[in-house]
Design goal:
- With 136 residues, the chain is an alpha+beta fold.
- It has a single domain (2-135), classed as Alpha-Beta Complex (Nucleoside Triphosphate Pyrophosphohydrolase).
- It contains 2 helices and 7 strands; from the N terminus they run ββββαβββα.
- Strands 1, 2, 3, 4, 5, 6 and 7 form a 7-stranded mixed β-sheet that branches.
- The protein is globular, with a radius of gyration of 14 Å.
- The mean pLDDT is 93.
């Protein structure tokens, strides 16, 4: 069975006394997602994360939340094992969307189910918010 690994970021900021998470709408299929991309040969997870944040958002420098690295895996309809690794970072700067996306939004955890069907994504955001609160 073939395998694919993507590295991504859950980007958050505090706005109006609520934590909000950045989501992006893909140009090709209008699906909402987090910034992420495939890991390239000989590239570390951190190298991939750095490259994707630069390419998709124009973010060059950032601070990762320590001890947050979460994985989601599933088998796609093409019979490929897809693994997603997510890191957490706080960002309150300007977002420069890539050609890959047509829109971005900052959503609350309560709004997440309006944009994501998969329960794994909701659980991921719940864990991210819990980690954020524990770090304050």
């Amino acid at each position: 069975m073939n395998k694919e690994t993507s590295i991504g970021a859950i980007v958050f900021k505090k706005l109006s006394n609520k934590f909000r998470f950045l989501i992006l709408r893909r140009r090709d299929n209008s699906i909402w997602e987090f910034p992420k991309g495939h890991i390239k040969t000989d590239e570390s997870e951190y190298d991939t994360l750095k490259r994707e944040l630069s390419e998709e958002l124009g973010i060059k420098e950032y601070d990762l939340v320590k001890d947050f690295r979460e994985e989601i895996s599933y088998v796609s309809s093409r019979n490929v094992v897809r693994k997603f690794v997510f890191y957490l970072l706080n960002w309150d700067g300007a977002i420069k969307e890539s050609e890959e996306h047509i829109e971005h939004k900052w959503i609350t955890l309560e709004e997440a189910s309006e944009y994501f069907e998969h329960k794994d994504i909701i659980r991921l955001l719940k864990k991210a918010e819990k980690t954020i609160h524990e770090g304050i």
